[in-house]
Specification:
Helix content: 10-25%
Largest sheet: 7 strands, mixed
Number of strands: 15
Number of domains: 1
Shape: globular
Distance between the termini: 16 Å
Order of helices and strands: EEEHHEEEEEHHEEEEHEEE
Radius of gyration: 21 Å
Number of helices: 5
């Protein structure tokens, strides 16, 4: 199976499906003997971005996203998305370009309003922050959360995670007297599950079950649905789940007011369908056909990326189960054999 990739430094053909942002940042400067001004972001604890930078990043992302969607061309917002979201929407645009090579005449431009910004203070790179907006797409009660990230001061801001949840589900974040949020370390020991362990725990749960996660659509129900579909007349299905933990796929988390954390993380999933002799594999989905290599004479393997947001409680909580806030999964490749 394929491996997760490291930090991006090149242009990527990717795109997204919602966005909003703005942030804040105090810059630590020193004057060297030569008179040059140096930013010590690698040592100082600083907010993720300035409000001006954040607003600019949101505008740039939204413009690029709308242009790419209208044209069905992932190259048009390749510099504005990365990680899980980049993979999901990049594949979607690639399929759209093959199915509608002239673009999407019915596309309605994305508009994000009533945006709130949650900007953590931290030392070193990468830096990141979260936006929370209403959108002109989907359910009226939903809020769209985007995670913006960049690896150093010379890179542009890119969106790596997307979460869609109702306003009442979004937790209150812990903030200091200046309004800055608090990031959660990957190995935080005061949580039921540390952010860095969530991808592995989720992949293991999907395979073997267990008590780490609360029941719901993305946990117990998904396992139940897989079990029901594992063996159908003439067709067997196998599942493999992989954690992605490095580079632009690394989990990021914000401390919540109750002492827990909201964590964004990524997993990769494979679903292999194998047909018995005499049973054809019918591919009727246009997007699957657009992304498929090979001929599915005996088997079809679907590869997808899943972008999760989950609430992990503090160790002091009575209920230690992790609860999903949202999960967005998208097909990224298909292979027939």
């Amino acid at each position: 199976m394929s491996r997760d990739r490291g930090p991006r430094r090149t242009r990527r053909t990717r795109r997204l499906g919602r966005g909003a942002l703005a942030a804040v940042s105090v810059t630590a400067l020193s004057v060297t003997a030569s008179g040059c001004v140096v930013v010590h972001g690698e040592r100082e604890i600083l907010p993720g971005a300035t409000r001006t930078e954040a607003a600019r990043a949101l505008a740039d992302f939204t413009d690029a996203y709308n242009e790419a969607n209208a044209a069905n061309d992932p190259s048009l917002d390749a510099d504005r998305v990365t990680g899980a979201l980049g993979d999901i929407d990049g594949a979607k645009l690639k399929a759209g370009g093959r199915n509608q090579p002239g673009g999407n005449p019915d596309y309605v431009p994305l508009k994000l309003t009533d945006t709130r910004f949650t900007i953590p203070e931290k030392a070193g790179w990468p830096r990141w922050f979260v936006t929370d907006s209403k959108a002109n797409k989907g359910r009226g009660e939903d809020r769209w959360l985007l995670v913006f990230t960049r690896g150093d001061a010379n890179e542009v801001w890119q969106v790596s995670y997307l979460t869609i949840a109702s306003a009442e589900e979004i937790p209150e974040f812990e903030k200091d007297e200046d309004g800055w949020a608090r990031p959660v370390a990957a190995d935080a020991a005061d949580l039921a599950v540390a952010p860095g362990k969530l991808p592995q725990r989720y992949a293991a749960y999907l395979k073997d079950g267990g008590g780490t996660f609360a029941d719901g659509a993305h946990t117990s129900k998904w396992r139940s649905d897989r079990a029901k579909n594992a063996a159908r007349p003439g067709l067997a299905q196998q599942y493999i789940d992989e954690p992605l933990t490095s580079g632009d796929y690394a989990p990021v988390g914000l401390r919540t007011a109750d002492g827990g954390a909201l964590v964004f993380f990524t997993t990769r999933h494979y679903q292999k369908q194998t047909a018995a002799r005499g049973y054809p594999i019918d591919v009727t989905d246009a997007d699957v056909e657009a992304l498929m290599t090979g001929d599915p004479e005996r088997s079809l393997t679907l590869e997808s990326i899943s972008n999760q947001a989950a609430l992990t409680p503090p160790r002091s909580a009575t209920d230690q189960k992790v609860t999903f806030l949202s999960r967005i999964q998208g097909l990224t490749a298909a292979k027939g054999e």
